[in-house]
Amino acid sequence: MSRLTPERTDQLYAAVLRLLADVGYDKLTMDKVAEATRSSKATLYRQWGSKEALVVAAIGALAPEPSQLPDTGSLRGDLIGLACEHEDVDDPEMDLVVAVIHACKTHPELAESVRERIVTSRSAEVGILLDRAVRRGEVAPDNPALPFVIVTMIGPALLREVIDGEVADVAYVSRFIDAVLLPALGVTPSAP
User: Fold this and answer.
1) Distances in Å between the alpha carbon of 177 and those of 23, 35, 75, 166, 190?
2) Distance between alpha carbon 65 and the CA centroid of its chain, in Å?
3) Which residue from 10, 35, 11, 41 is spatially nearest to 23, judged by alpha carbons?
4) Domain-by-domain residue ranges, the chain?
5) Distance between first and last Cα of the chain
6) Could you tell me which residues come within 8 angstroms of residue 141 by beta carbon, excluding any fewer than 6 positions away?
7) pLDDT at 156
8) What is the CATH T-level fold of the domain 6-60, as seen in this structure?
9) Alpha helices, DSSP H, located in the chain
10) How many CB atoms lie within 10 A of CB 149?
11) Crossing angle of helices 30-37/41-48, nearest 10°?
12) Distance in angstroms (rounded) separating the CA atoms of residues 134 and 140
């Protein structure tokens, strides 16, 4: 079995993501991927086994690698530090985000794979930061906002471009953390 080089794999993933954004998950086929990448369909199936596995791998490759989590001594500093770590990673095109969300709504098996392989690890990072804040006494362990933090953080990143026509950069995320998230958690933001 021939192995694909990392460069070739990156090219394949980029093509899969472009096709996903252009045609959506339902119309994305291994034939289209093979044609767009000048690969054989047999190679694609041998490497990934299914369209779902290939799409999940491509989306996963787009996400930044988990890194050493910031530990600034405050929840605010940690959350902003996490946002800064991901600032240099190109945000996916909005069409891709819409295609993935739609595909997850209509294909439960894809949604489960995306949750298991991508969302869970990214959510765990925020969970660690929240656990630290609870241990430091910054946030009450029974604060009713705790279960909503991850969804609350993702919303502005996805929707700011749709609503305001602007990217959710670190300055915007910092203002959001200070104005919405920290007050919901009972934390008084200190001056930046």
Assistant:
1) 35, 44, 10, 17, 11
2) 11
3) 35
4) 6-60, 65-184
5) 55
6) 134
7) 79
8) Arc Repressor Mutant, subunit A (1.10.10)
9) 6-27, 30-37, 41-48, 51-62, 75-85, 94-106, 108-114, 120-136, 149-164, 170-176, 182-184
10) 22
11) 110
12) 6
Mean per-residue pLDDT for 115-125? Answer: 81
Mean of the pLDDT values across residues 72-94? Answer: 74
Tokens of 96: 């891709």
Q: How far is CA 170 from the centre of its chain?
A: 16
Q: CA 52 to CA 37: how far, in whole Å?
A: 17
**Contact present, 102 and 27 (Cβ < 8 Å):** no
Q: What's the chain's length in residues?
A: 192
74-111 exposure pattern, b = at least 16 Cβ within 10 A, e = fewer? bbbebbbbbbebbeeeebbeeebbebbeebbeebeebb
| Predicted TM-score (pTM) of this structure | 0.70
Please check whether the domain covering 65-184 is classified as CATH 3.30.300.30. no
Token representation of residue 16:
């899969």
Closest CA to 20 of 89, 97, 113, 86: 97
